[in-house]
Amino acid sequence: MLDLINDLLWGKVLIALLVAVGIGFTLASRCVQFRYFGRMFRILSASQAFKRDQHGHLSSFQALLLSVAGRVGGGNIAGVAVAITLGGPGAVFWMWVVGLMGMATSFLECTLAQAYKTAEPDGTFRGGPARYIARGLGRRWNWLAGLYSVLLLATFGFAFTALQSYAVATSFDDAFGIPARYTGLGLALLVGLIVFGGVKRIARVTEVLVPVMAGGYLLIALVVLGLNVTQLPDVIALIVNSAFGLEPAIGGGIGAAIMMGVKRGLFSNEAGLGSAPNVAAVAYVPHPVNQGIVQAFSVFIDTMIICSATAFIILLGGAYDPAAGAGVDGIALTQASLADHVGEWGRSFVSIALLLFGFSTILYNYYLGENSLDFFSSGNRTLFNAFRLAIIGLCTWGAMTDLGTVFAFADTTMGLLALANLIALILLFKPGLRFMRDFDGQIRAGVKQPIFEAARFDDLNVDPAAWEIEPEDLKRAQQAAAAAPASQ
Alpha-carbon dihedral of residues 467, 373, 432, 292, nearest 10 degrees? Predict the structure, then answer.
């Protein structure tokens, strides 16, 4: 039954919707992900990116790192290896396509999450797809918001947590001979120490962990590229030719390449799933588009940089034979490939990298699960604590379960989650473009840092309490609106 559902979702429905939203918003927004690519760096280098308001909300930079912590995980190491094993080298090309389209999709969903975030009684924010569905589409769509929250809990709170634990435990068993149950118990203990401290403690941990883990992994990838620079053109040609079925008997042909590229690409960068918007919504930013631009950049980091690093490590090594497939798969293929380049210590390096990636992703998954529970029962500490205990238990169970079962369940729930969110994004296309055009208009008017004036969007049911603007900032926003009325 899981296979039947997955074939329908991933073979037909989701590919069409991902293309419709990704390409559709790219064209409608005049290629916003490329137009504002340089601005991604300016936003992150500005002091505003590190600013928190009086309630101690996450800064834009912290929200970026937390979302990167979630995107960068087992999908970047084990998932890429699975995609190449089952779909051939061409799957990497389709992962790139999904990544570039996903930048626009992530921009849209994270901008909507910021615009429709709500202020809680304790001064914090809550937001994400459930909120922008409920507030943006109205009461008659509350059923979709509730369904999305249930699927978010099942996918990230449960399935992906078990999957990350499995990947870490398998890797440690291969590299160090440590039984999976002991790795699972150790991971559960570490996770438990963090999640009971809430999202702010998670953000503080990822603020340190993400740059270290991503930087270290990219450094070793650059070493591998340097050792094999003369072979790089051939590998790129292999990827492109395989993507269009121009290489004989590789993987499962062009259909398998596209399907695995889309599935594993979406699993890795999560654009369209609606996961990152849950984190993007709690950041303190002066305009929703700011965080949309930043989150588009996180997709670029995940797919175009880190997934590509894993793909080149595998395809430049000797453990994978494009004609015959791989003798090993999953995380073991990445480990064997790196060991082929740098020696046996490469296995240990991949295991440590995966531990850091998987650990940070589990923390992120916990927060998404908590956010989905909050939609049904706001601030229920008993329910949250029960969920925290469940996450700890899943770390142990996932380490000792079977890869096929975990991936099949994760693929199904992820597909249904994406379906619910993509439908909502299509219905909220116009509000998303309106928020973007407000930002564009202020930029054209010469405003260096556009400001979101919620009162001008009260017809879209945004929460004015979530957008407190200082008098001088309000005056600047009004001047920008007067200077560029056509943009509205």
Answer: 70
How buried is residue 296: exposed, middle or buried, by Cβ count under 10 Å (0-12/13-18/19+)?
A: buried
How far apart (Å, rounded) are the C-alpha atoms in residues 487 and 95? 34
Phi, psi values for residue 270, rounded to 5°: 65, 10
Please state, in angstroms and rounded to a whole number, the distance separating the CA atoms of residues 145 and 417: 11
Q: In angstroms, what is the C-alpha Rg of the chain?
A: 22
The secondary structure of 218-267 as a DSSP string is HHHHHHHHHHTGGGHHHHHHHHHHHHTT-STT-TTHHHHHHHHHHHHHHH
Q: For residue 342, count CB atoms less than 10 angstroms from its CB and return exposed for 0-12, middle for 13-18, buried for 19 or more.
A: middle
Q: What is the pTM of this model?
A: 0.81
Is the pLDDT score of 47 beyond 50?
no
pLDDT in tens, 77-130: 777 888 888 888 888 998 898 888 889 999 999 999 999 998 877 667 788 899
What pLDDT is recorded for position 46? 53
Structure tokens at 28: 């409608």
Beta bridge partners of 321: 325
Higher-scoring residue by pLDDT: 404, 342: 342
d(CA 273, CA 416): 9
